[in-house]
Amino acid sequence: MAHPLAQKYSLAGCVINDAVSNSGVGQGTALVVEFTSAFLVLFTAVTVAFDRVRAKEIGLAGVAALIATAYALASFVGITVTGRAGYGGAGLNPARCMAAAVVYGGPLWDGLWVFWVGPMLACFVYWAFSLTFAQERMVVTKEVEEPCV
After folding, report:
1. For tag attachment on the chain, is the N or C end more exposed, with fewer CB atoms within 10 Å?
2. Domain boundaries, the chain
3. What is the pLDDT along the chain (149 residues), one digit of tens a residue?
């Protein structure tokens, strides 16, 4: 595959603006999409995987399928809602976008903060939102107070 094609299709989810065709979305729009997508995946994963009743009802395969569906839906919506050429949708993985910026550099550094701030905000909002949940059904790990030998 030619280098321009490889670069164009290997960075899906980590490109906000296409510098060549000057198309894409603004950093504010990308932040909203990244936040919404990360919150959707986080909400689905944590509330289903750590809820004893739901996890037992649907089983491990069901939990994994539900989380994968949320991830796919977040990716699909992130791309189609904006409908702009040059925008690859939500990255949903800041480390992958960081690696792309290190390897390719250039304009990927300009919007890199979006892929870090969006998921962090989603985590903070989910944490604040989870304070209102009933906690008795959630799986909580207890720390062992025995010294390690």
Report:
1. C
2. 10-137
3. 445 655 555 566 677 776 555 667 788 888 998 999 999 999 998 888 778 888 888 888 999 999 999 999 988 888 787 777 767 778 888 888 888 888 887 777 888 899 999 999 999 999 998 888 766 666 655 554 555 54
Residues in the chain: 149
Task: Show contacts of 67-72: CB within 8 Å, 24+ apart.
Answer: 67/41, 69/44, 70/40, 70/41, 70/43, 70/44, 70/45, 71/41
Long-range contact list for 129-138, CB < 8 A, 24+ apart?
129/43, 130/46, 133/47, 137/51, 137/52, 137/53, 138/50, 138/51, 138/52
> What percent of the chain is helix, strand and coil (3-state, nearest 5)?
65, 5, 30
Amino acid residing at 114? V
Query: How much is the pTM?
Result: 0.77
> Roughly what angle, to the nearest 10 degrees, separates helices 112-130 and 94-104?
170
